[in-house]
């Protein structure tokens, strides 16, 4: 069925009173818009669903969410009564329609005889992941679009290990979802009735406390080791982070902090920032304002579902400087290992995990402490999904992260977690302050000791059908035209992950290593309409590394942008 027939089918099926029907009528005659909404079903992958909210098969709405939930319910039912009794736990962020999607999801599972647990309000994604393991459910669903713009929403699916579903489980879910008729195949019950009669359990505050207790158990230093008067500014960017982050700071004894008032309460329009991604320094504008007023030494931010985390620190001249995800990772890797080594708690076979496109400087730091750094594909379904293998082989998991400001310091929270990462960074700042140092000093010491790295992660955004096709052409062109040298440096090694590499499964990604201590990676994003680049250089000084990295970046981007 082509997009026009699908469009007409939706018009025929939707009731006159359904606002989605009015939305479709408003685009009648707009061929490009109709095609974008109906040229495909919203893809279900290892990140679940994610897309713009609106009418159509390629949009997030009650029909596509209902169809996805019914497919997952069918898969759980196929596993038998034990899986159904284990149940599903569901949480949400503050985005438009997140509450409605959350209650719909719960209602569909309940109608299929599956036990359901639901958080009564917004909660961080990492708390949802933790609760899966805490309750030993078969699955979990988080309604969120993470850091995407306000027009988006999403549906993250988890399995019983507390990780986002593996490719194998995602394929099974996708097949089950495909078999569901979107108009007649979805079972549902009234949410309020199911909550009243016990088919749906509303989770209490004790589960919030359990999550925070687990986060706070990750502390490296306490009490007299820390200067807890260090001035801090935190922003949840109008998302899920305010309540747990505030309680964590109080529990840990920090005394001189504030939450940006304009960004404390939930706002699905993210009115103060527009694009709610703490990876973008623009998200720190208000934090910097209050930081200057209060003399804050550290600015912290989480994205709307509080799984991503970023910081700005004061440089030697007293200016706020945003750290990229790799740099924050250096600080955390070094702080955790340094602290555990001093305390004598480093395990005999310690392990950390990073993605293939994350800087190799952290590998060098880990090696210095006798800890092995493992690489996986991008995404915490892969990073935390490595934990069972590590445990089977006698390793103790210490930390996992990737350059896109995601950090997972807890073996029982198998997802990136902005609250626990924020706690450890705030603690590290307080620890170094007690010694007369800043986080800037700590980062400089890392470069001095392990190598002067530069990092850059640009991307090219290409939306819609044409954009998706162009990204595919870019990757195909690169594979067919691997350069022999770039910016005067010879290509020394190429790793193409399209068919897998060693023990790493296939992914549409390429890494190219140069003979001057530099390397870069390229891959299409799995959740956003963009092609992503990762550039790294190690030289005799930070300035030289930045210069070399910039030259390589500019040449590579010029080559790829020339592909039409």
Give an overview in words:
There is one protein chain. The protein is of the alpha/beta class and 564 residues long. It folds into 3 domains: 40-203, 3-Layer(aba) Sandwich (Alpha-D-Glucose-1,6-Bisphosphate, Chain A, domain 3), CATH 3.40.120.10; 216-449, 3-Layer(aba) Sandwich (Alpha-D-Glucose-1,6-Bisphosphate, Chain A, domain 3), CATH 3.40.120; 453-561, Alpha-D-phosphohexomutase, C-terminal domain (TATA-Binding Protein, 2-Layer Sandwich). Helices cover 41% and strands 20% of the residues. The protein is built from 20 helices and 22 strands. Strands 16, 17, 18, 19, 20, 21 and 22 form a 7-stranded antiparallel sheet that branches. Strand 9 (298-302) and strand 10 (309-314) form a beta hairpin. Helix 10 packs across helix 11 and helix 13 (325-343) packs across helix 18. The longest helix has 20 residues, at 542-561. The mean pLDDT is 96.
Strand content: 15-25%
Q: Show unreliable segments.
A: none
CATH level 1 class label of the largest domain: Alpha Beta
CATH fold field value of the largest domain: Alpha-D-Glucose-1,6-Bisphosphate, Chain A, domain 3
Features:
Alpha-D-Glucose-1,6-Bisphosphate, Chain A, domain 3; 41% helix; 3 domains; seven-stranded antiparallel sheet; globular
Can you give me a brief rundown of this structure?
With 564 residues, the protein is of the alpha/beta class. It contains 20 helices and 22 strands.
Topology, element by element:
Blueprint: H1 3-13, H2 19-26, H3 31-38, E1 49-52, H4 62-78, H5 81-86, E2 88-92, H6 98-111, E3 116-122, H7 125-135, E4 139-143, E5 152-159, H8 167-178, H9 191-196, E6 200-202, H10 205-216, E7 232-235, H11 242-252, E8 257-259, H12 285-294, E9 298-302, E10 309-314, E11 320-322, H13 325-343, E12 350-355, H14 361-368, E13 372-376, H15 380-383, H16 387-392, E14 396-402, E15 406-408, H17 418-434, H18 439-450, E16 452-456, E17 459-461, H19 464-480, E18 485-486, E19 489-496, E20 510-514, E21 518-524, E22 530-539, H20 542-561
Parallel strand pairs: 2-3, 2-4, 3-6, 7-8, 7-9, 12-13, 12-14
Antiparallel strand pairs: 1-5, 4-5, 9-10, 10-11, 14-15, 16-22, 17-22, 18-19, 19-20, 20-21, 21-22
Helix pairs in contact: 1-3, 4-6, 4-8, 10-11, 13-14, 13-17, 13-18
